[in-house]
Amino acid sequence: MKRSSIYRTALKVVVLLFVAWFMGAAVVHDWGTIRDYEWRISFWPFTASAVLFFGTYALLAWLWKRALAMFGHPIDYRAAWRMYFVGNLGRYIPGKIWTVAGMAYMGARHGIPATVSAAAAVFAQACLLLSSFVFFVLFLILWHSRITGAWIAGVVVGVSLLVGVFMFPRNLERVMNALLKRLGREPVVFPFATGDVALLTAQYMVTWLLFGAAFWLFIHSIAAGSHVGYVYAASAYAVAYVTGFVAFFVPGGIGVREGILGFLLGSVMPVGVALVVAMSSRLLVTGIELLCVLLTLTGRGEIDGEKEAHT
Q1: Domain boundaries of the chain, sorted by first residue
Q2: Average pLDDT, whole number, for the chain?
Q3: What per-residue confidence (pLDDT) applies to 304?
Q4: Residues 6+ apart with CB under 8 A from 51
């Protein structure tokens, strides 16, 4: 094994152990509070949360359909659903490249060149990340008593770099084609304008608003004594989700997202309680994701799809 691979593996293990230690220590420390907390599942808020989570995932599949259409490969919604949810199973393998590879494979099954599917997947993820930064800013404002100027400067620099690269199609095309060239693949063309990127990014922002509402409802459906506002819950969820997403060495961001979410919510409820809420919400979301995958079995063909005519 190469030395660089050993270092990467060691880093993954250290980070995962740290996350596990933080979560375990917080639960042990707050065990008395967790045990005595007013836990109660309220049927209607819980149901509304589950329905809203499911509806938001359905919207993500529709936005994936839009992204493919922007690359000149329109498909019907059922095919987009199958591609999105089956292809995204790759995110549960360490390394975000497997998500892109999964989407490329599913695209080929539907008659779309693998390079185009991969480019569309990277483009869609870029728009999703860009749209989340509104909530990063909101969270910094709400958490102003705990942050430093370095935090704010870091976020501003990061947002500026991402906007400079991803909001302008020509820049993203250059980055993508440089990567494809290294992989020995054909270049891809991004046949749309900056306004199209801005529109898709705004539509992805709606998914964060819905995810935030679903998470806020979930908090109040199981933790009756909590006093978490919608804006704070939505912002914390977006920050934790994106942090877990960019933690490429952790399959599906498992552990990282929950640890960050517990830490962020720790300012409005006991950290141990916040971690229980975060881990419980992951169980609900994972169940909904599995349901979305299982629903592909109700469509035509096998779960991995079949070539379909473009519409």
Answers
A1: 41-298
A2: 80
A3: 44
A4: none
Q: Which two tokens stand for residue 287?
A: 């169940």
Q: What is the pTM (predicted TM-score) of this model?
A: 0.82
Provide the pLDDT for residue 307.
Answer: 45
- Nearest residue to 89 via CA among 105, 77, 109: 105
CA distance readout (Å), 6 to 1, 2, 65, 247, 282: 7, 6, 39, 18, 30
Residue 78 pLDDT exceeds 80: yes
111 pLDDT band, cuts 50/70/90, is confident
Is the pLDDT at 168 greater than 60, yes or no? yes
